[in-house]
Every structure is written in structure tokens, then in C-alpha cells.
């Protein structure tokens, strides 16, 4: 029986050693898993930070585009107003041209009379309606 007990103890010791070895390997595996989880957690944090920065940048770009669109709209309105004013000015110029064409200056060149020191009111009496 001593021999059997010794064999059983030896077998038990062997199984305990195998169990300790398996537990040690499991501990190392768990440590590797924890290390991998830590790396993944850091990566997720970096991705989240980058996503927040990208979101803020996108919002700023959107705001800038909105501002540009507003300025473009204001410029467009300004161009319309300038176009209308130009058309009005062209009409007034045509009307003025038509009015001036009704007058003729008699008694010499208007430029010469102005150089002689005559006041424009003096030349107006030389105008006649045709």
C-alpha cells in the first residue's frame, strides 16, 4: 500500500504541477489579453478624439461656406442694383443727349467763348431751340 500511496502522491504531484503550469499559461494569456485591450482602448480614444476634431472642423467649414454663400448673395444683389443703376443712367444719358441735340450754339465755338472768360450764362443767350 505504501507503494500505491507513493504512486498516487507522485501522480497527484504531477497533476498539480501540470495544473500550476496551465494556470501560469492562462495567467500569461490573460495578461496578453489585458495588454491588447489596453492598446485597443487607447486606439479607440485616439479615434474618438480625431472624430471630435473632424466634426469641429466640419462645422467650421460649414459655417464658412454659409458665410461665403451670404456674401455671394449680397454681391449678387449689389450687382443687380448696379445693373439697374447703369440702365437708369443710360436712359438719363439718352434723354440728356436728346435734349442737348435740340440746342445749337450760334456765334462761334463754345470752347473759345469759355476761354475768353465769358460766363456760361453769357453763352446761354446764344442758344436757340431748333
UniProtKB/TrEMBL annotation:
It is found in: Cell inner membrane. The keyword Lyase does not apply. Residues 120-130 have a biased composition (Polar residues). InterPro entries: MCPsignal_dom (IPR004089), T_SNARE_dom (IPR000727). GO terms for cellular component: plasma membrane. It is a multi-pass membrane protein. Residues 20-82 form the T-SNARE coiled-coil homology domain. Residues 107-130 are annotated as: Disordered. Its main location: membrane. Keywords: Cell inner membrane, Cell membrane, Membrane, Transducer. Coiled coil: none annotated. GO terms for biological process: signal transduction. The keyword Electron transport does not apply. PANTHER family: LYSOZYME-LIKE PROTEIN-RELATED (PTHR32089:SF112), METHYL-ACCEPTING CHEMOTAXIS PROTEIN MCPB (PTHR32089). This is t-SNARE coiled-coil homology domain-containing protein. It comes from hydrothermal vent metagenome.
Amino acid at each position: 500500500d505504501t507503494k500505491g500511496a507513493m504512486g498516487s502522491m507522485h501522480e497527484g504531484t504531477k497533476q498539480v504541477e501540470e495544473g500550476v503550469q496551465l494556470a501560469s499559461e492562462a495567467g500569461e494569456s490573460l495578461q496578453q489579453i489585458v495588454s491588447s485591450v489596453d492598446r485597443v482602448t487607447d486606439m479607440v480614444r485616439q479615434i474618438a478624439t480625431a472624430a471630435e476634431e473632424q466634426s469641429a472642423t466640419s462645422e467650421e467649414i460649414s459655417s464658412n461656406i454659409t458665410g461665403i454663400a451670404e456674401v455671394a448673395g449680397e454681391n449678387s444683389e449689389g450687382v443687380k442694383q448696379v445693373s439697374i443703376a447703369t440702365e437708369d443712367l443710360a436712359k438719363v444719358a439718352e434723354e440728356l443727349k436728346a435734349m442737348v441735340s435740340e440746342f445749337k450754339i450760334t456765334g462761334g465755338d463754345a470752347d473759345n467763348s469759355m476761354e475768353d472768360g465769358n460766363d456760361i450764362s453769357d453763352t446761354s443767350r446764344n442758344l436757340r431751340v431748333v
